[in-house]
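Writing this down once: the sequence line spells out the residues, with the fold written below as integer tokens. This is how one looks:
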Amino acid sequence: MSELTREEPAIDGWFATDSAGNPYLIGGKCPRCGTYVFPPRENNCPNPACTSDTLESVALSRRGTLWSYTENRYAPPPPYPSPDPFEPFAVAAVELADEGLIVLGKVVEGTLADDLKVGMTMELATMGLFVDDTGVERVVHAWRIAS
């Protein structure tokens, strides 16, 4: 395994951090009908009643309500990276506070399904997903119980 050299997003363009270091998701918003989309894209409004082919890049809410959740208790098959030994992890579907959009993401390490309850407030975080062969830790957006 390579020595950790730096952190980079696992997928470019899905999240960023503000000047205080707080993460936020990057989404798309239709300028015609106001519909939001995540992950971000530049065109094709998802609202079937809208004919707009343009989406503007916007910062999305950092907080939301836990809409649903599950716990993954099995390691993903290759080629997906998985720690050895595998540790179960929770996955949350969070309805963003202002947009009404539901965003799926892992829950930070140390929080499992027994710790979660539909309706609780969640906030955005980031966490390392894996370290690649060049020593870069690949980081993803994640959810944590709001303090």
